[in-house]
Design a protein that fits this description.
This protein is about 55% helix and about 10% strand. By secondary structure, the chain is an alpha/beta fold. Helix 6 (about 95-115) links the parallel strand 3 (about 80-85) and strand 4. Helix 6 runs parallel beside helix 7 (about 140-160). It starts with a helix and ends with a helix.
């Protein structure tokens, strides 16, 4: 599944304006919350003028945020440059009313975001380490789950002229290269990001949202140096993948 050329050119001409404001609002659930410290640290150390804010609630989906009056209030409260949207991890590629809810929520939230003068970005999440045990017929393994999630996010991105933060693609790159490192991206539940996973998330976010090469990130946080290098390289490969199509 690939990024549309029309969307790429739209982003190419809008990204330079970010240098004048540099404010980002993140909307999501625990997949965002559990990476927020790493995200904030990388942006602070590598690009100190950025201001980040988070509106998250564990287990909730974008339909919840759309229905929550606080969401629209927060979006309209400041002159954000970017608002990042993250769906509940199972719903986007599940089909039926789950996928319908995802696409409708992205469309409505993107409209609110654009009316407020910001650019919507979609946080393309990852498949679970061994698939989704609660939905084995839909998501029997990581690859199947990742393919369906990616397809849903790219479709929503194209339809709503929203940028893509290809974290799930970076997870796939790591799995192709280093199974042990791939497994370390997850906490014991095989779903949520570990500190290693959060570093990969943060590297992708920083690379896309600043327009800079994530392999130039200097700090390793609490991650072992050789692992940090591989994670940054995977982030770069995922970003290149969406920009080359």
């Amino acid at each position: 599944m690939s990024f549309s050329k029309n969307l790429f050119f739209f982003l190419l001409f809008t990204i330079p304006s970010l240098s004048f404001g540099k404010k980002i609002l993140f909307i999501g659930n625990s997949y965002t919350t559990q990476c927020s410290e790493q995200i904030s640290n990388i942006f602070k150390k590598e690009s100190g003028t950025w201001e980040l804010s988070f509106l998250t609630k564990g287990g909730k989906d974008l339909a919840f945020h759309l229905a929550n009056p606080e969401t629209k209030k927060r979006i309209q409260s400041q002159k954000w440059n970017i608002v990042v949207l993250q769906e509940q991890s199972q719903k986007s590629g599940r089909g039926g009313h789950f996928s319908k809810s995802f696409h409708e929520s992205v469309a409505n939230l993107s409209k609110i975001i654009r009316e407020a003068g910001a650019i919507p970005y979609l946080y393309l999440t990852w498949g679970r380490k061994t698939g989704d045990q609660k939905n084995p017929k839909i998501y029997p393994d990581f690859h199947t789950m990742q393919k369906k999630i990616s397809a849903a996010y790219f479709k929503a991105g194209k339809k709503n002229r929203a940028g893509i933060l290809p974290v799930g693609l970076a997870y796939s790159k790591i799995k192709e290269q280093n199974q042990s490192l791939f497994e370390s991206l997850y906490k014991k539940d095989g779903s949520h990001p570990s500190q290693v996973g959060a570093f990969l998330v943060s590297s992708v976010f920083w690379g896309v949202l600043t327009g800079k090469d994530p392999t130039t990130i200097k700090g390793n946080g609490s991650i072992e140096k050789t692992q940090a290098i591989q994670l940054r390289q995977a982030a770069k490969m995922a970003i290149n993948q969406i920009n080359q199509n």
